[in-house]
Write a structure and sequence with these properties.
alpha/beta, 212 residues, DUF1788 domain-containing protein, globular, six-stranded mixed beta sheet, 8 helices
């Protein structure tokens, strides 16, 4: 097997396009996750943004690709940290007052209780409700910079909210951490199962970025 075929970043983009084409099926929504070395997460974000705007290099070519029904496959990248200021949870933490008068627990509690749900609301409002992204399997949403939300929300909470709110797109999420015994460990925390997600087992490290 060639080096390119074992590159987790190549596999990630290939499986996203395969799900969008309808050649693969998930248990529920087609979610694909790939672990990434935390220190290169932002570098990976830029590479995937480039791929989403125009495929190049060895990442999967999605232009002029259609699904089994004839619908065009599209790729849209979304930075989660850019959505965060549009949530009420974030605005509330700002409105609590000057940092030297606010209890840290109050800020953390507000974000942990509400951030995942409101991020998905903002995603729907900004990208799906207006028709910019078709709410269909043939549309791929790549959610980036998940590490910027740590420790206030996690990928599992976002996936649950996407499922609960009937977001039917194909979703890809690089997450800073590792796959441990088939479970995902976010920033080396206790590993958890992410039931509906398809997982790429190998982590994206700096060397794999050089290949693509």
């Amino acid at each position: 097997m060639s080096q390119q075929n074992t590159n987790p970043l190549v596999k990630f983009t290939t499986e996203l396009v395969d799900f969008a084409r309808g050649e693969r099926r998930g248990i529920r929504n087609p979610f694909v996750m790939v672990p990434v070395e935390p220190k290169i997460e932002h570098r990976l974000t830029k590479r995937l943004e480039t791929w989403a705007s125009a495929p190049d290099g060895d990442l999967k070519n999605w232009e002029d690709v259609s699904d089994t029904r004839g619908a065009d496959v599209t790729i849209t990248s979304v930075r989660l940290d850019a959505l965060m200021p549009e949530t009420r949870a974030f605005e509330t933490t700002i409105d609590l007052g000057a940092l030297d008068r606010v209890e840290t627990d109050a800020v953390e509690d507000t974000l942990e209780r509400n951030l995942a749900a409101e991020l998905v609301d903002a995603l729907i409002e900004k990208h799906i409700k207006n028709g910019a992204v078709k709410n269909d399997r043939s549309s791929v949403l790549v959610l980036l910079n998940l590490g910027s939300l740590y420790p206030f929300t996690r990928a599992s909470e976002l996936l649950d909210e996407l499922d609960r709110k009937n977001v039917n797109t194909t979703v890809g999420i690089p997450f800073p951490g590792s796959v441990v015994g088939g479970r995902l460990s976010f920033f080396n925390e206790q590993a958890r199962h992410y039931y509906p997600a398809h997982r790429i087992g190998k982590k994206v490290i700096a060397g794999y970025m050089e290949d693509v």
